[in-house]
Specification:
With 382 residues, the chain is α/β, with parallel strands linked by helices. It has two domains: 199 residues, Rossmann fold (3-Layer(aba) Sandwich); 138 residues, Alpha-Beta Complex (DNA Methylase, Chain A, domain 2). β2, α2 and β3 form a beta-alpha-beta unit. About 7% of the residues have low confidence.
């Protein structure tokens, strides 16, 4: 554990999940003092990885005073509050009425901002927040934070453009207390489309995983998940980067037989392409029936370890819970590498340094072709 730096900017992580945001902020040199989340398994994971307090509580029932007390900071100034309120209510894939009780947590985030009064805040959410379902809430959010003395900018960032090996578009809302913090400039993307980090960059060094039911002491997250004989047969027909449209009609589920042009869901029953960034890692990434989550070459789902790698979690990061719990914690997280980039930019900004617009660069070598990647041997266990 790094020694405490008393000069480091201080931060609070709300809706912290397993701690992806916190992991990145710590690597960026910020001092995270306290976190909170309502899900017991996520809080258990968080506490396995970090020594500062993590409250298991409904954020709607928390107060700034409670957080300050637990963090032992009294009335001391606070530099940053971050959070990613649950996004399912804004998802464009969601079916049902526009109203969702989880949406109101965005306004609870504003309430705690006003009570904690940090110099800056950063909120992450799905692009649907800016769509039809989220528009009324965004307007209320903006009105309240502006009334509280903040200036705000909203960005849509693709994590792949910042070196994360995954296409992951998210809304980043940044605010700063205008009376004592200058206008913040979002760090520029660093990776061109032709030089983005790929699936194979992230997982290509991993050996083939343990079989279902086989003990895997070396890495409990790197083992195969159960596949039916029918799904194993389906996978044989899906090429790297492909999806359910590559399946013969007789192997498609009934609701997919009309084709993606008619029904959508083009990427379910999908396989990752080794030479490109992954599709968005979601809470259900442990089954290729829910998205493009099959291994590029092997006829299996990607493992929890491979999903964690694509989300940029360190192999040393520990998770609590069963397979479903861990997949959800990984898929719902802010990628630590993206949080680190944002954290470094915020730390420099709070120190009064001018934000530099980084030139697009990426990897020095030209992008590999699929053939070149496929020729790279897959390591066997043992």
């Amino acid at each position: 554990m790094k020694a405490h730096d008393p000069s480091a900017p201080t931060a609070i992580d709300l809706f912290c999940g397993a701690g992806g945001f916190t992991a990145g902020l710590l690597r960026a040199g910020l001092d995270v003092l306290c976190a909170a989340d309502s899900w017991d398994k996520a809080v258990e994971s968080y506490r396995l990885n970090f020594s500062h307090p993590c409250l298991q509580a409904d954020v709607a029932e928390l107060t700034g005073r409670k957080i300050r007390s637990v963090a032992n900071i009294g009335e001391r100034g606070l530099d940053l509050v971050v959070g990613g309120p649950p996004c399912q209510g804004f998802s464009v894939q969601r079916i049902g009425p526009d109203r969702d009780s989880r949406n109101n947590l965005v306004l609870e985030f504003v309430r705690l901002l006003k009570e904690l009064n940090p110099r800056m805040f950063l909120m992450e959410n799905v692009p649907g927040l800016l769509g039809k379902r989220g528009k009324p809430l965004v307007e209320a959010f903006m009105q309240r934070v502006i009334a509280a003395g903040y200036e705000v900018k909203t960005h849509i960032a693709n994590a792949a453009e910042y070196g994360i090996p995954q296409i992951r578009r998210r809304v980043i809302v940044v605010g700063w207390r205008k009376k004592d913090v200058d206008t913040f400039v979002m760090p520029s993307p660093t990776h061109l489309a032709t030089r983005m980090r790929t699936v194979w960059d992230a997982i290509g060094d991993l050996p083939s995983p343990a079989e279902v039911g086989e003990a895997c002491l070396e890495d409990p997250l790197h083992k195969k998940t159960r596949l039916s004989a029918l799904n194993r047969e389906r996978l044989k027909h899906i090429p790297p980067g492909g999806g359910m449209e590559h399946l013969p009609i007789h192997l498609r589920v009934d609701c997919h037989k009309g084709g993606a042009d008619r029904i959508g869901h083009r990427y379910v029953y999908g396989r990752l392409a080794a030479d490109r960034p992954a599709a968005t890692i979601t809470a259900g990434f442990d089954s290729f029936t829910r998205g493009r989550f099959a291994h590029p070459f092997e006829d299996r789902n990607i493992t929890l370890r491979e999903g964690a790698r694509l989300q940029t979690f360190a192999d040393s990061f520990r998770f609590a819970g069963n397979q479903e719990d861990i997949a959800a914690q990984i898929g719902n997280a802010v990628p630590p590498a993206l949080a680190e980039i944002l954290g470094r930019a915020i730390r420099r900004h709070l120190a009064g340094e001018r934000t530099e617009q980084t030139a697009l660069s990426g990897r020095p070598a030209p992008p590999r072709t699929l053939i070149e990647v496929a020729e790279r041997p897959i390591r066997q266990r043992g």
